[in-house]
Amino acid sequence: MVQTHLETPKTQSAAMQQYYRFQSKIYDLTRWTFLFGRSSILKHIPYNRIDPFTLLEIGCGTGYNLQKIATNFPNAQLIGMDVSEDMISFPGKSFNPSKIESASKIDHTNSMTI
Q1: How far apart are CA 78 and CA 47, in angstroms?
Q2: pLDDT number for residue 95
Q3: How many Cβ atoms from other residues are within 10 Å of residue 60's Cβ?
Q4: How high is the pLDDT of residue 51?
Q5: Helix, strand or coil for residue 1?
Q6: What is the pLDDT of residue 90?
Q7: Tens of pLDDT along 41-99?
Q8: 101 three-class SS
Q9: What are the two backbone dihedrals, phi and then psi, of residue 68, each rounded to the nearest 5 degrees?
Q10: Going by C-beta distance under 8 Å and a sequence separation of 6 or more, which residues neighbour residue 29?
Q11: pLDDT value at position 46?
């Protein structure tokens, strides 16, 4: 007999939070094989260094890309969203605190604004 496993959104969310609690600490070091092109992509943002613009990154993880963009575009408003609270809170340990305006949880989605 085949047994099916039905999860509720609440149990799925809890399982994801548990998984990313550990992953947040090693994510950038262990994902280089499929994130290696991100530095190249960041060089092609079609704005001048001093231009004000807003950028939303969905699935921002630890905020690696947002930190690089914040360094290169000081007048940009950057917003990152990720499903994991731990991934969102991890960058606070390495980000320049003056660049972070807020970090908040919106429903089941987590976000940061730089």
Answers
A1: 14
A2: 52
A3: 24
A4: 96
A5: coil
A6: 64
A7: 888 999 999 999 999 988 888 888 888 899 999 999 988 888 888 887 765 545 554 44
A8: coil
A9: -65, -45
A10: none
A11: 93
Closest CA to 95 of 65, 74, 68, 67: 67
Gap between the Cα atoms of 6 and 15, Å rounded: 13
**The pLDDT value given to residue 12:** 84
| Beta bridge partners of residue 56, listed in sequence order | 79
Residues 45, 74: contact at Cβ < 8 Å?
no
Compute and round to an integer the Cα radius of gyration of the chain.
16
Token pair, residue 76, equals 């940009």
Q: How far apart are CA 18 and CA 81, in angstroms?
A: 18
**Long-range Cβ contacts of 33-39 (<8 Å, 24+ apart):** 35/64, 38/64, 38/65, 39/68
Buried b (16+ CB within 10 A) or exposed e, 80-89: bbbbbbbbbb
∠ CA 103-108-114, nearest 5°, is: 20
Say if residue 100's pLDDT is above 50: no
Q: Which residues contact 77 (CB under 8 A, 6 or more apart)?
A: 52, 53, 54, 55, 113, 114
